[in-house]
Predict the structure.
Amino acid sequence: MSTHAAVILAAGKGTRMNSRTPKVLHQVCGTEMLCLVGEAARQAGLAPVAVVVPQDSGLIESALGSEVSYVTQKEQLGTGHAVLQAEKLMKTVDNILVMYGDVPLVNANTLKQMMKRHDETEACITLLTSTLVNPTGLGRIIRDPSGTITAIVEEQEADAQTRSIREINSGFYCFRGPWLWKHLNGLPPSKKGEVFLTDLVALASLQGMQIESILSEDAYETMGVNNRVQLAEAETVMRQRIREHWMMSGVSMPDPSSVYIDHTVELGQDTIILPNTHITGRTQVGEACRIGPNSMISDSSIGNGCDVLSSVIRDSHLDDNVDVGPFSHIRGGSHLGQGVHVGTSAEIKNSRLGPDTKMGHFSYMGDAHLGKNVNIAAGAITCNFDGENKNETYIGDDVFVGCDTMLVAPVTMGKGSATGAGSVVTKDVAENTLVVGVPAKELPKKPKSVKEPNS
């Protein structure tokens, strides 16, 4: 029998988002809200995790994956009705923590504290409450003179005195499993036919059951997201948390407010992130790097000691001690070896540059394989697309590609070969050969001078 499990409610329509995307799949710092809630549940040690979804749940299941179980709420008949859909799956669970998929800032440590209080007091219900948020529109926690919780009153049903209460219900509950299923099935529906979890608090109080709570110390972790204004607020809070985490871990940010780092990013010690830099997706940045200003890196791996100045890197890998920019673009599928230099306004697409290769400004390498210690001079490009197919270029070690050279793929340049400025290479070049011209041809070797015999 499981000790603590989670039920995450994610079947709401979220009409105030005005979106074709399910509300819980809107992202905060690059991760879907529902995924952030699920991650908090797993970090808190809750298992199994059941997610209550609407009938058309393909997008949700695709985002969350198979680490959780899914139950369907066919009709939107209140929070109590939503939890009931998980009864069969959770029938043997001792304690059930009910969570909401649109509360992305909840902290795993808070969930652990809830479970600890619930276990230590042997409570029937343990609530997460807050006094730090604006109570407007939220349910108020009602306590008797001894401080015991007796009910939750929704604002629309509250009188002026009740509305003056600052302590609000977050919507997070920890229930004793057997008690929950016994009484949730018998709750009377509202006039609209909906069943609400809040009614269980008053019922437990009437039965003399133990009701406990913990008070959130974070003004934002209980904030639900119902529209795009609140989504932006959650994004702001999460970004600040992320920046503070990395700065405390040894990453420098001279102007943190201008830096955007996603939830899934990893940063190494002694790296500096300069202003107006965006690091997104599943990006990993090594130690002692200098990123920015004005750089964008997404879904890429950056080695130690790299310098990315005012450039864009997407879906690519940089080994150690690579420098890029300014104003260059490293596109998907590229791999830059150790010590590679990419200059100003260069572009690389789906190409591999070997160690210590230098690529000058205003140059382009697409679908190319470069060896080590290659020099790509200014304006040199691979002509990789023939109108139908993307063709590959192979450049061996120690090759020198002169300024404004065009390498018309498919083509190979052998080890130690070179091109003169402005060459158009349409045929393979042998090792240690210099080609020049349009089309490029091997430069004739000068005949050896013949000495006249002594007279």
The mean pLDDT is 94. The chain is about 20% helix and 25% strand. The two ends are 111 Å apart (CA to CA).
